[in-house]
Amino acid sequence: MDTLRLVLTPAAIGVVSSERPNALRELPTAVAFGSSADGPSALYLKFLPAWQSFSEIDSAFLLLEPMPGTAPDVEEIPVVAARIASAWQPDELGFMTEPKLLPPKARGLARSSPKATLRVDVTEIARFLKQHRTSDYGIALKASRSGAHGASYATGASGGRAPRLELYVR
Questions:
Q1: Separation CA 139–CA 58 (nearest Å)
Q2: 8-state DSSP, 125
Q3: 15 neighbors 44 (Cβ within 8 angstroms)
Q4: How far is 143 from 127, CA to CA, in rounded Å?
Q5: Cys-Cys link to 14, which of 47, 90, 92, 147 (CB 3.0-4.6 A)?
Q6: What are the E-state strand segments in 86-161?
Q7: Alpha-carbon dihedral of residues 9, 14, 19, 20, nearest 10 degrees?
Q8: Prediction pTM value
Q9: What CATH number did the domain enclosing 48 receive?
Q10: CB 157 within 8 A of CB 28
Q11: How many domains does the chain contain in total?
């Protein structure tokens, strides 16, 4: 009852895919986790640290919305969220230039059948970033294996809702 809900949209967002090994000049409309066609994909997100002025983070969730009109996959795709180790720019990200990812880490399951919001509990990551402000380069999300179609989520570039960080703070 004594918590405040904050919903943050990314200040910076980037996508890396082995299908597109070089830096992307334009943000794609979706990121596909576990798609064998796109190969390994990663989503890089940087949020403004609006939670820094609060004394405590009760919980934090990274939320991604399914991309409308994409093929469903019956398999669940495990995804891992982790903090990004160094500064990055969306138009400089590429398969060979991805920043290293460091703990703490969080796990989630991407599902595309039925289509559902991907909700990853990133509370430990958010708490770490609050306590280590100079290490706050954002959060990345990667699939740990491939499926037939994978699960596609909107980036907010053209249709669909952008990823967001939902925080419950005091």
A1: 18
A2: H
A3: yes
A4: 23
A5: 90
A6: 101-110, 118-121, 139-143, 151-154
A7: 140
A8: 0.89
A9: 2.60.120
A10: yes
A11: 1
